[in-house]
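Appendix B: complex inputs.
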Amino acid sequence: MPKRITLRLIIILSVLCCSAGYGTIIFNNKISSHSSSAVPDRAPKKVDNPVNQVTSGSIIYRLPNSERLTQIALDTTVDMAISGIVNRVKVEQSFTNPSNEWVEGVYVFPLPENSAVDRMTMHIGNRILEGQIKEREEARKIYQAAKDAGKKASLVEQKRPNIFTASVANIPPGESITIAIEYQQSVLVDNDTFSIRFPMAVKDRYVPGEKIATPKDALGTSPNTHRVTDASTVTPPSDPLVDRPIHMTIHLKPGFNTAKVASSYHNIHVTNEGQQNQYINLTNSAQLERDFELVWTAKPNLTPDLAVFTQKKGGHHYLMVMAAPVNKTPSHYPKTPREVIFIIDSSGSMHGSSMDQAKQALAEAIMRLDKGDRFNIIDFDTQFTPLFTEAMPAININKKSGLQFTKSLEADGGTDPLEAIKFAFTSKKIPSQPLLRQIIFLTDGQVSNEHEIIDTVRQYIDQDKFFTIGIGSAPNSYLMTKLADYGRGAFTYIGEVKEVRTKMTELFSKLESPALTDIQLSLPSNVQAEQANDVIPDLYAGETLTAVFKLNTLPSSLEITGKTMDGQYTKTLHLRDASDATGIDVLWARRKIERLMDAYNTLWGEEEKAYAKIPITKLAIDYHLVSKFTSLVATDITPSRPGLEHLATKAVTNKMDLSMFTPRKIAYQVQTATNSSLWMLLGLLLMFIAFIWRKKGRHG
Amino acid sequence: MARSFLLIAGLIIFAYGSYMPIKAQLSQLLIRHAWHESTYSGEYVKPWSWADTYPVMRLQAPSQEEDLIVLAGDTGNVLAFGPGLSRLTPHTNHSSTWLISAHRDTHFEFLQHLKVGDFLMTTNLDMTIQKFQVNDINIIDVTKQDIILDDHHATLKLITCYPFDALVAGGPLRYVVTAEKYQTFLY
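Resulting structure:
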């Protein structure tokens, strides 16, 4: 019960019951406060609140010790060296502590999903401490012990294949600690285009499920849930005001004369250093909240359709083969009738330009459907809404309602595609003639339950194909790539509205052309080889096959077999012009771990999981790689924090992505006052006059 | 004759004026009852059968000993009974702005005594308790400025009319208390 109202009611009642004297008190109190001497002690004394004197637009207070001011400053320097198809990257993170207490900084950051993190060093003054690869729990213990002992320490852990956490303990007040994380990745090759991506920020990810117990010291913005049991570790806080600058330099040695070197979304400066050597830097170090992408192409006729790299290390040979076995020429086959199911994400994270891109892409796709095709659209956020209960023929009237449906989509709610995907798989009739069923999933993939989704697609896929279209400034490409792999489809990335048409055309040529399926690679029988990925995803026209082997001796040829519309496909590759490279061993191990992790993720039993964990951990430790089960840890020898000083743990806030959404502005039209005081006063005034009148009448 | 007419007219006008705050207080009892039922059943419960609103959350200001039940919607007929949560900011979205309005002369009278650094608590129907800290108090002219809703940040915006002691309703100024999420308690 608001005190002042209660008091006022009491006064009003006492006015009515007792004397009229109090009426003037209210009068005094309400209208003029200069005659406060007339206020008896029992009446409420109105303290004049300073807020009543301020005019529109001014800010009265701001929190002096706001979290924003005591933020840990973080500066990132990225140094890439691209040599052939291997990209070696060094990410230096400098944690600066502006506060006057000892601080532990915990930073959640993204790396490309195919990155093999194999080195971490901690820089204190002139000293460099090398990080050791340890089993995850052991690494945690070492870090915790050093942290408790007041020693400087750092720990790099993998939370998702594309999300990592760096913890740095005991940063002295006003000082900084730098850690350098190194990883390696293979360059992406698609349709004669070479590219690398570097993610700039972890986006707010949707966490589905019921809340479960979350550690009290968790630093994430979301609690753990029964569907995402580690949600609190992958949802870092974000703030639009923090500055997280990224400086980037790239040394590009593609191994051929380039026709074009360009960044898709950022401004870069390219300097030629010799014929096949370029130096590139990002012109603006302010963190741009979207993935960085560098694309380069070879001069015409220089693109090799086969590239072979070898490395000899520790008594083993490593071999990496890249080939484009399927011709890019459009298919000459009559088109098979298709059933295309679109699943479109209209969750809150799609708000803004992403939704526009998705809508345009979808509209483009609907327009391209043939009369003989069937289609359906499923819109999802927290729930899902299908356009039709099952796919309908792509005749004009249905296409029109499809376009209407697309147009009316609005981005809000959570990102929970699971039920929508299940519906897409299950809402099919047994057709009279065989249809090629393709499911196209348009999303930014800002989910935290990747494995649940991947597992669903793996279970339901059957003969269907699953294609993913990544939308927006920083889609979850780990999720998209994996879904497309399991779904025997392809992943297309659309980063800007102006790319929609070309990318959709590209995708449609893939959808319409038959793929090379059931791909097998075989080596001469005298060679003992261990292939990193024994399952090779289906290849569409122009797509490049990449395979990495660990062998006892180098073979002279390699045979690719598979199935096409024509039947059996066989091609022999002669591995003559192999070039020596470094880092193939790391790529091999990283791919092998990924393959083993895929198998691990399909297991349910605790015992089976524990068993499957062993070879992964061993491989990761042998090759010094960070994985789900292994982390890099570095600790200082001497303690620096005095034992009695408190250590505060702070999540390093990510820069909030403002490109994805504009804060909603609304004109406020709610009437938040009544005239009750006015009416009450008026009533009292009238009664008072009547009272005086009577008094006067008596005297007269 | 004229005197007693004046007295009766005064009484009627006074009663009319006091009807609003009394209604506002009494209805909170029924609303509170509906809220408890709602937290028990997990479903929306109307405080009385013909009501066009239902409780969606509980709002507490410990420093002012305030404990209010927030209703769905912020139209005039809702605000007569209690603070209202704007339909533009659904209570189910925990990581966005919640825009709550109430009358300056009834439920949100306490806003003028809130200070930066004060805590506010909300309890949702699913019994999640969130603690917010006031970090900004602002006065805006609604004819010139918009209210900014951040859809990606747990924020509480409490709005009422300003100045607090204005006699006549309908001015363009609004008193906006913004509080940012401080902590979430889970049960």
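Chain B touches chain A through 87 residues (CB under 8 Å).
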